[in-house]
Specification:
By secondary structure, this protein is of the alpha/beta class. Helix content is 29%, strand content 17%. The longest helix has 23 residues. The N and C termini lie far apart (81 Å).
């Protein structure tokens, strides 16, 4: 009897030891990027007509970032920045997007270390479902850039109708209005297969990029026309993915990030109020986008932060959250401009975000720098007539009339003046001098550092 009791005690002790010393379960990552969604276009960011209950609830359960910036003002460089944590000019971008001002088959250098490669090297199952747009040649496709599983459109939905899986085209003529559903179905398929492994899933919807064509089940459903229909479907589909995570019992161990690749298309019925500008423009509306992060039980519910955080920060931030030494993994890469902002996302008191951020116009010109509340905008004409500046109120239009006079940079306090309508350069000349010196320093660091060339297709 005593022997049996001793054995039971030993078994219990061994079980307790196994629990105490067991390898911690690595968090999963679901990174969701939508295409051309404006800052204002979700319920939780103030839109009065577009209904987004899934994303609103995600924001309520975690962190809503109100000074989150995309990697660039247009598709291709934004995705390069997100994947590498570097300003896109470090990985060869000069202007435009694949298929417009860039060669249709040009791509990001395969030498660049991507977020997917970082996570894959740590034993994560990696997948992309959605828009890639940073390379369609064998060495620049997703499966050559760290993704185990890839189901994707190599270009924007206005440029191609082909859908790829790995290195093969599996659909020659996809139907634009069905893509959001298809990318969701593929994401769910991946989750069900890889539920027992830590995973990194990049769900990159082509919506609501033009042409804006609602799914048949969503046509006319919203109170905001076709654009509202498409955004509300995206919200619902994300809900389907979250429901799957819960059914698979992995939701509580999954970090979910939701962002947009840039501001709204200037010709689309979308918005970025109170900001001015849109896609292509270095005004706030072109690059400040929604940023939502959820991790149940880790990120306290109901958090909101106006701390400066950018898409280039997600590689180091998510790596830190998952216990990965990102600096070691990216050795030899062009300089990673992203910083670890995990404490900001956790809502820690006095957590430090970025000190400064550089902005480029989508055609490649360096246009502005932000540091704290201040933004120095170098192109006066672009501040008046640049892409997307039709997105302004009559009051804003009246205030910016004088911007075209002279060549000196414009100085904005974007906390007090989010619409970038009041030039304070004459009032604060020392601030202008300080920000110009900082911009010169940052640009010099890029030009004198390692820069990877764009990958051209082989003859």
């Amino acid at each position: 009897m005593q022997s049996k009791l001793t054995n039971l005690i030993l078994i219990a002790l061994l079980a307790f030891t196994a629990i105490v010393y067991a390898t911690p379960v690595k968090p999963n990552v679901l990174l969701i990027m939508v295409d051309d969604l404006g800052y204002y276009d979700l319920g939780c960011y103030g839109h009065p007509k577009i209904k987004t209950p899934v994303l609103d609830n995600l924001a309520k359960g975690g962190m809503r970032l109100t000074s989150f910036y995309a990697g660039a003002t247009v598709c291709t460089p934004s995705r390069m920045a997100l994947m590498t944590g570097s300003y896109p000019s470090r990985v060869g971008w000069e202007k435009g997007v694949m298929g417009y001002k860039m060669g249709f088959h040009d791509g990001m250098s395969p030498e660049a270390v991507t977020m997917a490669e970082v996570f894959k090297s740590e034993g994560y199952a990696t997948a992309i479902s959605g828009k890639w747009h940073i390379g369609d040649q064998p060495e620049t496709r997703p499966n050559a850039q760290g993704f185990d599983s890839s189901y994707y459109s190599a270009h924007s939905n206005n440029q191609t109708r082909k859908t790829w899986r790995g290195d093969e085209v599996v659909e020659q003529k996809n139907v634009n209005k069905m893509l959001t559903e298809q990318f969701t179905t593929e994401a769910i398929r991946f989750l069900k297969v890889k539920k027992d492994n830590p995973f990194f899933l990049y769900l990159a919807y082509t919506a609501p990029h033009f042409p804006v064509e609602p799914h048949p089940d969503w046509q006319g459903k919203s109170d905001y026309g076709k654009y509202g229909d498409v955004v509300e479907e995206v919200d619902y589909r994300i809900g389907e993915v979250i429901k799957t995570l819960k059914e698979l019992k992995v939701y509580d161990n999954t970090i979910i990030v939701f962002i947009s690749d840039n501001g709204p298309n200037p010709h689309q019925k979308s918005g970025c109020l109170p900001y001015r500008g849109s896609k292509w423009s270095a005004l706030e509306g072109g690059t400040r986008v929604p940023g939502i992060v959820s991790f149940p039980g880790v990120i306290p519910a109901g958090q909101q932060s106006d701390t400066l955080v950018a898409a280039i920060d997600l590689l180091p931030t998510l790596s830190t959250a998952c216990g990965i030494d990102w600096q070691k993994k990216t050795t030899g890469n062009p300089h990673v401009d992203g910083i670890d902002s995990w404490d900001v996302i956790l809502g820690k008191k006095n957590a430090k975000g970025r000190d400064d951020l550089l902005y480029w116009h989508g055609m490649g010109q360096f246009h502005a720098i932000r540091a704290g509340d201040w933004k120095l905008f170098f192109d006066r004409q672009a501040a008046v007539t640049g892409t997307g500046t039709k997105r302004k109120t009559p009051e804003q239009a009246e205030k910016i009339k004088a911007f075209s006079e002279g060549n000196a940079p414009l100085l904005f306090n974007i906390t007090d003046d989010p619409g970038e309508t009041i030039d304070l350069s004459a009032k604060y000349p020392e601030k202008v001098k300080q920000l110009k010196a900082l911009a010169d320093k940052r640009i010099k660091e890029i030009k004198t550092g390692k820069i990877l060339p764009i990958q051209k297709p082989k003859p």
